[in-house]
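ok trying again, last paste got cut off:
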Amino acid sequence: MKLKTTLVLLFTFFLLKIASSQEPRSEGKKYTIENCINRFDPEKSTKTAVGYQYWFIEQNFLKDGLTVKMSVVGPKQATHAPHKHPGDEIFFILEGTAQFYLDGKTTTGGPNTSFYCPENSEHGIGNAGSTEMKYLVIRKYLDK
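nice, full thing came through this time. structure:
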């Protein structure tokens, strides 16, 4: 458990460092201890067709569009079909067994596994296991 927490914190710190080196998305945003801590609140999660999601860092909160979302997916399900989009995306498995898809190939991974999806690559993730799967989605939404 301690390793998972350490890895998540290091991963998030690295991404925050990248985001903080960018120009602010909105001028005058003030970050405080109150708005910089987000503890999971099931009442604020959003139900999906296959589980639920919770935004720890929503779009437009951090500089340059970096987000962190937890997705929870039921056994043998996926949130959507493989797809492509501008901007890189990272999945970090917290619990369960994921099936990763990248440009025509698949593999599986369990807790403390990360999956990097390069910009404009066809990618997807699904729950390959018989229990609930939890993972973080770390993505930078690009300005249009």
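cool. The helical segments are 2-20, 33-36. The mean pLDDT is 86.
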